[in-house]
Design brief:
Elements lengths: L8 H23 L9 H23 L6 H12 L1 H4 L20 H28 L4 H5 L2 H7 L2 H18 L3 H26 L6 H4 L3 H21 L8 H21 L19 H21 L4 H27 L3 H6 L1
Helix pairs in contact: 1-2, 1-5, 1-8, 1-9, 2-3, 2-11, 3-5, 3-12, 3-14, 5-14, 8-13, 8-14, 9-13
Length: about 350
């Protein structure tokens, strides 16, 4: 990553704000954990900055390599999800009660949040959407292997993500009305931010690397991140801290994730990447249509799926665990290719 940037600070900071909003939307609004994060003091002062700092800093680590690799995205996303230990204590003591606790850690919640939800919906998906909507970069879009790349780079693939998010939110939504208002209001904020971006930047186009923090900015952003970790660790549910065993398991997960991220940045991708010209494109109307899908999906889900919401939640949770573990194994294989794969690459 370059130590200096040619982008104006105004544009760069606006990009960070939009990236924070994307991450908050796909993680918190999709899950129904916070259906109105852009309209409350807690959301604007705590939730959005929390997601913004994590996605900006971790994206910076991914892009410090020659180019972002799929494996690096997965491992950085796992690091993102580990905030659910010290900041919220959910990995140790879920507020809804853990069905299983091993060594002071809730394994089901850890698998769901670290390997699947935050890795993909807090980190990878928001970065992909930001790259496509706000930059001229294609490196991240081209980093996805095989069919997952074909799916996520297609309009119908991202439309399916929005439908999934709407249906998932409906499981936790208290009412049809709140689903509809949440869907319309939060997507309106995102559309508004994107329109502001296009108006402010006008004819200027930037790469993702130009918009992410420089090395100096990265170090400065560590300060508010550290303060947030210290304050939330002390103030939010301190009674839920585990014994030494629970801390050790989280430290091991941090250590393994950092090691894999570092190693993946040094490993050339084995899967051949498509050319940038192969990526599908679509006009602004189709992007706006994506935003319209979410409120329709969450409202329809609330109307249709309410009677089966609990078993559906279990199915989606365990389906997410399986998907997350499969992607993790794929990322590990790309990080440690065997000699035959290396020779053929």
């Amino acid at each position: 990553m370059n130590t200096e940037t040619s982008v104006s600070r105004k544009h760069q900071w606006l990009f960070w704000i939009i990236l924070a909003a994307f991450s908050t939307f796909f993680a918190e609004v999709f899950s129904g954990s916070d259906m109105f994060p852009f309209f409350t003091g807690w959301g604007l002062l705590v939730v959005v900055p929390l997601y913004g700092l994590h996605i900006v800093l971790l994206a910076n680590l991914v892009y410090r390599a020659s180019k972002p690799h799929f494996a690096s995205l997965v491992f950085a996303g796992m690091l993102f999800g580990l905030y659910e230990a010290y900041l919220t204590k959910v990995l140790w003591d879920p507020p809804w009660g853990a069905a299983l606790n091993v060594g002071g850690v809730a394994p089901v919640e850890t698998l769901v949040l670290v390997f699947w939800w935050h890795a993909w919906f807090s980190f990878i998906i928001p970065l992909l959407v930001a790259e496509k909507l706000l930059t001229k970069s294609t490196e991240l879009s081209l980093s996805f292997p095989g069919k997952i790349g074909q799916f996520l780079n297609s309009w119908w693939g991202l439309a399916s993500v929005m439908i999934f998010g709407g249906l998932f939110q409906s499981i936790n939504s208290p009412s049809v009305g709140e689903s509809l208002v949440s869907g319309i209001s939060t997507t309106a904020v995102l559309v508004g931010l994107v329109l502001i971006w296009k108006r402010v930047t006008k004819d200027k186009t930037y790469t993702m690397e130009e918009l992410l923090p420089t090395q100096k900015q990265f170090k400065w952003l560590l300060v508010p991140t550290g303060i947030m970790y210290l304050a939330m660790s002390i103030l939010i549910r301190p009674e839920s801290f585990p014994g030494l065993g629970g801390h050790l398991i989280i430290w091991i997960l941090y250590g393994v994730s950092f090691y894999l991220l570092s190693r993946s940045r040094q490993t050339a991708a084995i899967d051949p990447e498509p050319e940038a010209s192969s990526l599908p494109t679509w006009d602004n109307k189709r992007w706006l249509l994506l935003a319209a899908i979410f409120p329709l999906a969450t409202t329809a889900g609330e109307l249709i799926l309410a009677p089966i919401s609990h078993p559906l939640a279990l199915i989606l949770w365990f389906g997410g665990i399986i998907f997350g573990l499969i992607m993790f194994v794929k990322a590990v294989k790309l990080t440690f290719p065997n000699k035959k794969e290396t020779q053929n690459a």
